[in-house]
Amino acid sequence: MTDISQAIAEKQVEQKKNPTVRDLVQAQQSAIEVQLAGAMNSGAFVRAAISTIAQSADLQQATPSSVLGGIMLAAQLKLEIGPALGHFYLTPRKQGGQQICLPIIGYQGYIELAYRSGRIEKIETFLVREGDKFDHGANSERGRFFDWLPADYDEKRAWTGVVAMAKLKGAGTVWAYLPQDKVLARRPSYWQSTPWKTNEEEMARKTAIRALAPYLPKSTELGKAIQADEQKVEAIAGVHDLVITRDDASTDVIEVETPVEAWPAVEVPA
Predict the structure, then answer these.
(1) What 3-state DSSP class applies to 176?
(2) Beta strands in the chain (DSSP E)
(3) Dihedral angle over CA of 220, 105, 110, 124, nearest 10
(4) CB 137, CB 144: distance < 8 Å
(5) For the chain, what are the domain ranges?
């Protein structure tokens, strides 16, 4: 056996004894392919996952079970991993003295999952910023309403609140407003090691969509995403003016308004 072939053989034996996270992910490609169910190319999915791991020394040190768990969740939800689409993130976090991988569903991921129900015509969010005119309330003519007049479209101005709204097929529009303090209160204690640190506005938009999610038609994947989000709260405190209005302006307003303190406990992500 030549020196080169001997070195290769020894390396292969070493990898079997001490597999890297990359080795483990590649070994699970067939299982990942089952979860994707043909919705995405499994090879491209695995490459994106490995690329994300390769860019983070902390993720490379994370427990294999947590990394594989995050990847499998993304596969179940059929969401692409990485910042390209903003669907799904693998983020490192210290827990109990060891490094783990914390999966986080992004704002665009929630949008994608919401559309899969087939019953939403349009879903969007916008950030209310300093200098904007934003008013919300109710009267006998309009029912509950909001009016938003942006000072300009300069996204560098600080944001003060976020609105999420969805147009439902044949059922009008549902929307919710969260002021900034209520949004930031939902950040986890470890938020500085998550996309909250680098993509605060995107996470604020996600928080608004997540607050609206219980009132949206559910796809199977959206239901799984809601269950998977880690942080739990006792109520959707701070959500104001959740309403449904008819598309036909000549008809009466359908209002859905339960006192915040009476709403059931739901999971709300950071």
Answers:
(1) strand
(2) 88-95, 98-105, 120-129, 133-139, 143-149, 159-168, 172-179, 240-245
(3) 170
(4) yes
(5) 3-105, 107-262
C-alpha–C-alpha distance, residues 168 and 155, integer Å: 28
Residue 50: how many CA atoms within 13 Å on its side-chain side?
Answer: 16
Q: Which two tokens stand for residue 65?
A: 């079970």
Distance CA 264, CA 270 (A): 18
3-state SS class at 241: strand
Higher pLDDT: 195 or 180? It is: 180
Structure tokens at 255: 């209002």
What are the structure tokens assigned to 59, written together?
């993720």
What dihedral angle (degrees, nearest 10) is formed by the CA atoms of 10, 12, 14, 16? -150
DSSP codes of every residue in 119-152 = -EEEEEEEEEETT-EEEEEEETTTEEEEEEE-S-
Could you say which DSSP state residue 248 is in?
S
Three-state DSSP state, 232: strand
CA-CA distance, 47 to 33, in Å (whole number)?
A: 13
Residue 178: what residue type? Answer: L
pLDDT digits (tens, 9 = 90+) for 131-187: 999 998 888 887 778 899 999 888 889 999 999 999 998 878 888 899 999 999 988
| Reported pTM | 0.69
Cα dist. 143→140, 152, 175 in Å?
6, 28, 13
For the chain, report the end-to-end CA distance as a whole number of angstroms. Answer: 57
Instruction: Provide the token pair at 51.
Output: 């690329």
